[in-house]
Design goal:
Strand content: 15-25%
Mean pLDDT: 83
Shape: globular
Low-confidence stretches: 259-266
Helix content: 40-55%
Number of domains: 4
Distance between the termini: 45 Å
Number of helices: 19
CATH architecture of the largest domain: 2-Layer Sandwich
Length: 520
């Protein structure tokens, strides 16, 4: 245990550093200083009165003391720069209470070590997910549930006793019920778990407001499951959070041993999609027949989703995890790893989505795991898959250039930037295509330190809706109207003709592409 962790637990007392030689020492215990003591260990914190500190002694390694009593020039007792860490306890603090608290901290730490040993024994004895969760119950004393990203229970500790009808139903069915999933999504519980630096705590109303601790299980930084512990038999302690963290890591190791996470399914389709991308699959009728023979029927609305290693730097094992997770989120999809890029053929969309791919779960997953992906436009001719594959790659590339942030980038949103990229390769400067009024306004802002440039940008962005623009800019509507009139005078543009507005908005996009516009 590091000194910083110990001091965080002692924040009610006034303890200050006199000297800090090595903050990286991993302490294993605390001992009282004895009179005329000359032998010290580097990983022990020695506690005692300032008068007990050995005089004029040089240490060959860093030694660590926490002292109480009158403050004086302790460092003056030592020759040269003796390697030591010295802390002094304020005279008003109770030294015996501090000592006992530190003893309790080390005792709790020892309990974590004991629990970890039992977890490791279960792992090395090949007891499987169920066996590890059963050991987890014996160590933590509360029931544990392991669920994957589709809310299916992979294991439930043998000590889990249903104390309400919903829990009893879920235990019988083997998955989280609709009511529970709706609660998770409505309260963004999965997001909270991902953001939390330690297991996340909540009180669940659908389980009679019983406390619940949720830990994230990750493989190669990809979230694959959650461990949930109910506060059923006793209240959670600080140790429980540490042990839950360790249990998540043990479960991660165990899950990597299973075939499900070593191999992906659908290999027979991968060869076929590879042929399509290489333009080696005949005509559209033959392609559809071949897929039908393999037991797969194409819908009319198709999309290509690409997760390129160029932007994500994923290992082979991490790619397999991404595939497994996305397969569970995009039903009826096919995948292939093509030129080190994960390609998903998305087959159809809901009728109410109007030929668009809308899947918030996929978008949240990509953001949460720091992944960049591109999505093609909708298409129906499977023979054109190569063109839409290139669209998806271009969407990811331009999305990375424009935003430099993880997430899903649609080609339909990047088309204008793709056009600019093509134009940029000619013997022209994109700035030459900017509306002169916009450049005048930009120069005016730089000279007068005004904000008319951004005001006009938002005014066009909100389709000249003054109230929405004012709300976005956090200004009064009358202030906005004054600015618009001022902009008209500066630019000499009345802002009342459709062609002019299109040119201005296009010019903003040019500057956005060239990164010359203010951050929005």
């Amino acid at each position: 245990m590091f000194l910083k962790e110990i001091l965080e637990r002692l924040d009610e007392w006034d303890i200050r550093y006199i000297r800090n030689e090595n903050s990286k020492t991993d302490f294993t215990g605390i001992k009282l200083l004895t009179e005329n003591q000359t032998v010290f260990l580097p990983n022990i914190l020695y506690f005692g009165h300032v008068n007990m500190l050995p005089k004029n002694m040089q240490f060959t390694f860093s030694t660590n003391f926490m002292l109480y009593g009158p403050e004086f020039d302790i460092l003056g007792l030592y020759v040269g720069n003796a390697p030591m860490t010295l802390l002094h306890l304020n005279e008003e603090s109770d030294p015996f209470a501090v000592y006992n608290t530190i003893q309790e901290i080390f005792l709790e730490s020892q309990q974590v070590v004991t629990g970890m040993r039992l977890f490791l024994d279960a792992l090395f004895n090949d007891e499987g997910l169920q066996g590890i969760l059963d050991v987890g119950y014996s160590v933590l004393g509360n029931p544990l549930f392991l669920s994957d990203n589709s809310y299916k229970y992979l294991a439930v500790s043998s000590g889990a006793q249903a104390d309400n009808p919903l829990m009893e139903k879920e235990n019988t069915l083997g998955h989280i019920e609709k009511e529970g999933i709706e609660f998770i999504r409505r309260n963004k519980v999965d997001d909270q778990v991902r953001k939390s630096r330690r297991p996340y705590y909540l009180q669940n109303p659908i389980h009679n407001y019983k406390g619940m601790m949720i830990g994230s299980v990750k493989i190669h930084d990809i979230e694959v499951a959650h461990i949930m512990m109910y506060e059923q038999n006793h209240m959670f302690t600080e140790n429980d959070y540490e042990l839950m963290n360790r249990l998540c890591r043990i479960i991660s190791i165990e899950m990597q041993k299973t075939d499900f996470y070593k191999k992906n399914k659908g290999t027979m389709y991968a060869y076929f999609i590879g042929d399509l991308l290489d333009n080696n699959s005949g005509n559209i009728e033959q392609s559809r027949e071949r897929l039908a023979t393999l037991g797969y029927v194409l819908q009319n609305d198709l999309f290509l989703l690409s997760v390129s290693n160029k932007y994500n730097a994923t290992s082979e094992s991490k790619q397999e995890m991404i595939i497994a997770d996305l397969q569970s989120m995009i039903p009826n999809s096919l995948y292939v790893i093509y030129q080190n890029t994960i390609i998903f053929l998305i087959n159809g969309c809901r009728e109410d989505d109007n030929h668009r791919f809308n899947n918030p779960q996929v978008e949240n997953y990509l953001k949460a795991n720091g992944l960049i992906a591109g999505l093609s436009n909708c298409f129906s001719n499977i023979q054109e898959i190569r063109k839409y594959y290139e669209q998806s790659l271009k969407a990811a590339q331009l999305g990375q250039k424009m935003d430099n942030a993880p997430g899903l980038y649609r080609y339909e949103s990047m088309t204008i930037f793709h056009l600019m990229e093509i134009s940029e390769s000619k013997d022209y400067s994109l700035l030459d295509f900017c509306h002169p009024a916009l450049l005048v306004l930009k120069a005016y802002d730089e000279e007068k330190k005004t904000d008319f440039f951004n005001t006009l940008y938002q005014y066009l962005n909100f389709s000249q809706n003054t109230q929405q623009t004012a709300d976005y800019l956090h200004i009064h509507k009358n202030t906005l109207l004054y600015r618009i009139e001022k902009i008209k005078k500066i630019t000499g543009n009345p802002l009342n003709h459709g062609d002019e507005l299109i040119k201005l908005h296009f010019s903003f996009k040019i500057l956005e592409y060239l990164k010359q516009e203010p951050e929005q």
